[in-house]
Amino acid sequence: MALANVLLLSQIAGHVILFILSLCIIVPLFINLDQFCGHCLLFTTGKWREEDGMFDVQWASSGFCNFPLITGFFLLVISVVQIYRYARMKEEASFIALFIDVVLGIWMLAMSILSAIFITLGFIVWCDGMTERFPSCEISAGQNIIRGDTEKINTSGFYIEMGTTQFGAWGSFAISVGIGVIALLKLIDNHQVRNIKVSMYLERQRLVNQQQHDGRSTPPIVSHASSDSEQNK
């Protein structure tokens, strides 16, 4: 029982941290999309023009940013639901509920690792283009590097925004691993307890049946006194 309480508290703490990390994915990524006029920075490439020194950008697909956003919202909703559910839990969860927790843990793990890879590799591709002109990617933040005739792109905070998003994605992956392992341990423990209960029930039924069988097969015991009286008669 004490181990179950420790695991339950660990799950609540893990989902609280996951809630915070999901905000670290959603908020800065939304801000970056707004500052870049809806364009996704991840995996975006381009060439520096010689005539004016501006970056001739070739925007990548918006799906590279949409997937981490979807992942962030998914982690946010799951964390809120699970925190509410675990806080109100008074009895041990059923096998089906524990199995669902394991499935959700696998989904969170898969989506968070894919988002972390997209953000990390996509940001590296962008920074490779920036370092062709600047000593580092961080220095290029805030510089007038993209000329837009109809759009005014603000590059002042992209380095901090993407760094925070990257931290949130990898942190979510690490926490999802822990949450998934705890859910799997609880499922295995529940399965073992169920097997023990079934085994004990079958053994108890076997003993009861054996006692009943032995009671019917034992012949009646006739005392010597009664046998002597019957002979005298």
From TrEMBL:
<keyword id="KW-0812">Transmembrane</keyword>
<feature type="transmembrane region" description="Helical">
    <location>
        <begin position="12"/>
        <end position="31"/>
    </location>
</feature>
<keyword id="KW-0472">Membrane</keyword>
<feature type="transmembrane region" description="Helical">
    <location>
        <begin position="96"/>
        <end position="126"/>
    </location>
</feature>
<feature type="transmembrane region" description="Helical">
    <location>
        <begin position="59"/>
        <end position="84"/>
    </location>
</feature>
<keyword id="KW-1133">Transmembrane helix</keyword>
<feature type="compositionally biased region" description="Polar residues">
    <location>
        <begin position="224"/>
        <end position="233"/>
    </location>
</feature>
<protein>
    <recommendedName>
        <fullName>Transmembrane protein 179</fullName>
    </recommendedName>
</protein>
<dbReference type="InterPro" id="IPR059010">
    <property type="entry name" value="TMEM179-179B"/>
</dbReference>
<dbReference type="InterPro" id="IPR029673">
    <property type="entry name" value="TMEM179"/>
</dbReference>
<feature type="transmembrane region" description="Helical">
    <location>
        <begin position="167"/>
        <end position="188"/>
    </location>
</feature>
<dbReference type="Pfam" id="PF26158">
    <property type="entry name" value="Claudin_TMEM179-179B"/>
</dbReference>
<feature type="region of interest" description="Disordered">
    <location>
        <begin position="209"/>
        <end position="233"/>
    </location>
</feature>
<comment type="similarity">
    <text>Belongs to the TMEM179 family.</text>
</comment>
